[in-house]
Amino acid sequence: AQRTLGVLDGASRTRFGLDAPRAEVTVHEGPEVTARLVLGGAVEREAAVYALIGAREGARDRATQAVVLPRAVADVLDRPATDFRDRLVADVDVLRVDGITLDRAEGGRVVLTRQGPSWRLDTPALGRAARGAVEAVTTDLRELRATRVVADDASDEDLRRYGLDRPTVRAEFRRGNGVEPVRIAVGGRCPGDESAWAATREGTRTVVCLATTFVDPMRAAAEGFRDDRVLGARTDEIARVRITPGLADGQPLVIVRGRCSAPRGGRRRRFRRFDRCTTRSRRRCCWRRATSRGP
Q1: Alpha-carbon Rg of the chain, whole angstroms?
Q2: In terms of Cα–Cα distance, which of 55, 17, 63 is closest to 39?
Q3: Taking the mean position of all CA atoms in its chain, how far away is CA 19?
Q4: Nearest Cα to 76, choosing from 23, 17, 13?
Q5: How far apart are CA 190 and CA 207, in angstroms?
Q6: If you write DSSP's letter for every residue of 238-268 in order, what string do you get?
Q7: Model confidence over 87-139: pLDDT tens digits?
Q8: Per-residue pLDDT for 179 more than 70?
Q9: Residues linked to residue 70 through DSSP beta bridges, in sequence order
Q10: pLDDT of residue 277
């Protein structure tokens, strides 16, 4: 408490808003001890509230004291019941997801399918999918939590109110071995929070708010999921490179992990290991050195 006011008379209780409290909190510390906290009105020109603190030990009542508490303490206790809910929406092992379908009100359908370590964009048929775009959609599935729970046991009218009767995005995440897919519908903006979207996991009828960091990647244009790289392999996955000059008398250059070598009859020179060239600038330096000092 910021300060203690002692025992109050009836008039003071009324003036401090303690006759019609904003909240009452009862704490059970054991079978025989119960603490009770009554939150009243705000203290003028202070970020604080009036409160009554009392306890009952066995059959004996202890005196009730009036105190002034920081407003932050009162705000933690005086919240809607839904704020105390578990906000977990989904907990999916991302490595087991082998298919994703996104039905968007704007942008049409996108179907992604895992093929080994990579993903393909099946609808529209645009070939290999960009790893970063897929990970932006799936990363938050591990312990996906709502920023707020809006309603439980939502009626059809509630779903219409939050735009969930005609979702902006309907996402389906499929897993192998016959596991039931996770389906999430996203409606309109979350009420009172433009940085989040109203959503529900289908089958629960619980309306929650999901952060834009989860929703926005699913709303990207279909072309944004396409991998536009000409070469899909990472540098650390390359074991051998052969470079054949266009000139008739030029000799091919072969670069293997850890050395640069010429074909038969040429001199072999050792160069900096290009598996250590982790940054773009060092990688360019490494390749220049290998090609400029050929056999």
Answers
A1: 32
A2: 17
A3: 43
A4: 23
A5: 10
A6: --EEEE--SSTTPPPEEEETTEEE-STTSPP
A7: 899 999 999 999 999 999 998 999 999 998 899 999 999 999 999 999 999 99
A8: yes
A9: 48
A10: 44
Q: Counting every residue, how long is the chain?
A: 295
Per-residue confidence at 196, pLDDT binned at 50, 70, 90? Answer: very high
Chain-centroid distance, C-alpha 260? 45
Q: How far apart are the first and last CA of the chain?
A: 81
Closest CA relative to residue 159, chosen from 202, 107, 213: 202
What number of other Cβ atoms are within 10 A of residue 93's Cβ? 10
For the chain, give the mean pLDDT: 81
- As a whole number of angstroms, the distance between CA 195 and CA 181 comes to 27
Considering only residues 235 and 295, tell me which one the structure prediction assigns the higher pLDDT.
235
What pLDDT is recorded for position 123?
Answer: 95
Q: Residues 40-72, buried b or exposed e (16+ Cβ, 10 A)? A: bbebeeeebbbbbbebeeeeeeeeebbbbbeee
Residue 124: CA atoms inside 13 Å, Cβ hemisphere, count? 9
Nearest by Cα to 175 from 259, 91, 74, 52: 91
Place of tokens 């939150």: 39
Query: Could you write out the DSSP letters of every residue in 145-169?
Result: E-SEEEESS--HHHHHHTT-SS-SE
Closest Cα partner for 36 from 24, 45, 46?
A: 24
Structure token digits, residue 21: 């409290």
> Between the CA of residue 190 and those of 73, 87, 207, 224, what are the distances in Å?
26, 15, 10, 26
- Does the global pTM surpass 0.70? no
C-alpha torsion sign, points 229, 230, 232, 236? negative
Specify burial of residue 123 (Cβ count, 10 A radius: 0-12, 13-18, 19+): middle
